[in-house]
Write a structure and sequence with these properties.
two-stranded antiparallel ribbon; 19% strand; binds ligand PBG; 11 helices; alpha/beta; TIM Barrel; globular
């Protein structure tokens, strides 16, 4: 044998020399859940270690993350049922706790990168990402609502908007509206290939945002398809997206690779709630080693071609790599 691949694995130093993929806190965005009120920090049952915070507690959490080097956050609101309606009015009410919270975060930590979510579901009495009429999700009518919420979020100081709704044409529509209103520096991270996935379950618990009827299959993608991801990516590039996102991550590593090989924009992957909870649940039972399973999954997402990972493990990863 003149080829012995094991020679490149013979010691830790040699293994480190030949290591192709590295993970850093700089690659991570930490999703956080905001609730109204004060002094509240409530654990999400289906996501051990992940909390819903009132703004005062969220500011403390952000401060401790920043000290660990986690500097990008994606904030999602959890609204009580009584503030929801069919047209998501609360989403662009300037006095609403979410927009006030975003403002306060940016005021306290101007150097962080703040991302927000653009979709109707947290504010919708139907629990869908778009406007519902006679059981159907209307596309073009939804765009006008998304644009009001996007402008309100940009005005609150958000650095990156994350349209997660999957309506057709929304990236271009939002880009035009932002530019016309002077928000040329506000970026768009498009949820380019967002699949109709079972792995969002725990997130919908965290936000009480599960659809009240049906499912999201007329707007989120079919897990069986990859060609469609190319169409979505073409459109997002044409329409002015700054980042392309694939979601979920682990069951869609081929899609991450496909987009990274075909498009010059940075690819982000959303390591979603169910992917987090699977590891946590089995670690709690002693069936998996939490830290190793976490590191291996994050690494696989990076190796497949994601430059950026949105993950509930962000703070834990930062603590572990100190
Ligand atoms: C909704 C939205 C979802 C997530 C992010 N934005 C859920 C859904 O589409 O129902 C899921 C995130 C996760 O599971 O961690 N616009």
């Amino acid at each position: 044998m003149n080829r012995r691949p094991r020679r490149n694995r013979k010691s830790e130093v040699v293994r480190n020399l030949v290591e192709e993929t590295t993970l850093s806190v700089n690659d991570l965005i930490f999703p956080l859940f905001l609730i109204p009120g004060e002094k509240k920090k409530v654990e999400v049952d289906s996501m051990p270690g992940i909390y819903r915070f009132s703004i005062d507690k969220m500011l403390e959490e952000i401060e401790s993350c920043m000290k660990l080097g986690v500097k990008s956050f994606d904030v999602f609101p959890a609204y009580p049922e009584e503030l929801k309606d069919s047209v998501a009015s609360e989403s662009y009410n300037p006095e609403t706790f979410y927009l006030k919270g975003l403002r306060e975060i940016k005021k306290n930590f101007p150097e962080l990168c703040l991302m927000s979510d653009v979709a109707m579901d947290p504010y919708s009495s139907d629990g869908h990402d778009g406007l519902v009429q006679n059981g159907k999700i209307l596309n073009d009518e939804t765009l006008a609502i998304l644009s009001k919420m996007a402008l309100a979020q940009a005005d609150a100081g958000v650095d990156i908007l994350g349209p997660s709704d999957m309506m057709d044409g929304r990236v271009g529509y939002l880009r035009d509206e932002l530019d016309e209103n002077g928000f040329t520096e506000t970026s768009i991270m498009s949820y380019t290939a967002k699949y109709a996935s079972a792995f969002y379950g725990p997130f919908r618990d965290a936000l009480d945002s599960a659809p009240k009827f049906g499912d999201k299959k007329t707007y989120q993608m079919n897990p069986a398809n990859s060609q469609e991801a190319l169409i979505e990516a073409d459109l997002d590039i044409e329409e002015g997206a700054d980042f392309l996102m694939v979601k979920p991550a682990l069951a869609y590593l081929d899609i991450i690779k496909l987009l990274n090989e075909n498009y010059p924009l940075p690819i982000a992957a959303y390591n979603v709630s169910g992917e987090y909870s699977m590891i946590k649940a089995s670690a709690q039972k002693g069936w998996l080693d939490n830290d190793r399973a976490m590191l291996e999954s994050l690494l696989s997402i990076k190796r497949s071609g994601a430059k950026i990972i949105l993950t509930y493990f962000a703070k834990e990863f930062a603590l572990l790599s100190r």
